[in-house]
From TrEMBL:
Gene: mprF
UniProt name for this protein: Phosphatidylglycerol lysyltransferase
Principal location: membrane
Stretches of the chain forming a coiled coil according to its record: none
Broad enzyme group: transferase
Protein location: Cell membrane
Lineage: Bacteria, Bacillati, Bacillota, Bacilli, Bacillales
Family, as annotated: Belongs to the LPG synthase family.
Pfam families the UniProt entry points to: LPG_synthase_TM (PF03706)
Ranges annotated as spanning the membrane: 12-32, 39-60, 80-104, 111-131, 157-178, 190-211, 231-255
Length: 287
């Protein structure tokens, strides 16, 4: 904490690039889901998601993100879930792509496995709409058709470009930390380390991925030649900043777009399937 606030120039840099990364994510989501909804709705939805993921031990912020988009965007629950799920899917594909490029360039033994999985995932995503098995499920067909309509248009490249740029900008946090500590590491290497760290946090059982983030980030930096102690220090420092940012941005959203915890809990339960199971049990009791 002392190191962060005693170097205000780098702290300001971290704030700017990290905030910009979320603005680009917001812009990509709005282009995909519909520009008739205000930019602020998308932004606050992402902000709430970030806050919830840094408070609760499991990653359920997307439930709140979905609920806000449904409530303030005038969308159905199905439409909201679809757009949030697609944004997460594109995030992971881009992170996996960046990670794969780095693994291949470093010549790690697992590089061929990574590239094969990424290639297969991309092909399946691109051709899913045409598979006979998929056509047996009208719900899946409808959503895959909408996905292809959007992503194969001119907007698709813009969406992918904005999401990619957002992850490059997020790597600016670890870039600043490395400069503050006095380590020597190239910008592209840090983009790779950041991508590997975020991709490694698909699931976590601690608020904000405490432990998972540090182990993945320090391990990635160690592979790039950074001493283990310095790598762990950089991971701690960057994660501390991200926690402070999540709470600050979430507090701003609470002021600008207040929500009750009961409402957020309902959305989280709905995404995790708890509401469905409870409603079924309620019907059985009434019967």
């Amino acid at each position: 904490m002392e190191l962060l606030f005693h170097q205000p120039n780098w702290l300001a840099f971290m704030l700017i690039v990290y905030l910009a990364s979320f603005l680009f994510k917001t812009a990509a989501w709005r282009i995909y889901a519909g520009q008739e909804v205000k930019f602020a709705v998308y932004f606050h939805a992402i902000s709430y998601s970030l806050l919830v993921n840094h408070i609760l031990p499991i990653k359920v912020g997307d439930g709140v993100r979905t609920g806000i988009f449904m409530k303030y965007g005038g969308k159905s629950w199905e439409e909201a879930v679809h757009s949030v799920a697609v944004m997460r899917l594109l995030d992971m594909l881009i992170l996996a792509g960046i990670g794969g490029i780095g693994i291949v360039r470093m010549g790690l033994p697992s590089s061929w496995i990574w590239v094969t999985l990424l290639a297969c995932s991309t092909v399946m995503l691109a051709t899913a709409h045409y598979l006979p098995v998929i056509r047996k499920f009208p719900f899946v067909v409808k959503h895959s058709a909408y996905f292809q309509l959007k992503m194969l248009s001119g907007k698709g490249l813009v969406i992918l470009g904005l999401i990619t740029l957002s992850w490059v900008l997020e790597a600016g946090v670890i870039f600043a930390v490395v400069q503050m500590i006095g380590l020597q590491l190239g910008s592209m290497a840090l983009v790779w380390a950041n991508s590997m760290t975020i991709a490694g946090q698909i699931f976590h059982i601690t608020p904000g991925g405490i432990g998972t983030y540090e182990s993945t980030m320090s391990g990635s930096l160690a592979l790039l030649g950074i001493d283990g102690k310095d790598a762990y220090r950089a991971a701690l420092l960057s994660h501390t900043f991200k926690f402070l940012f999540a709470y600050s941005l979430g507090g701003y959203s609470l002021l600008r777009m207040p929500l009750h915890w009961r409402e957020m809990k309902t959305w989280i339960r709905r995404v995790t399937g708890q509401t469905k199971s409870r409603s079924h049990s309620k019907v059985r009791k009434e019967d």
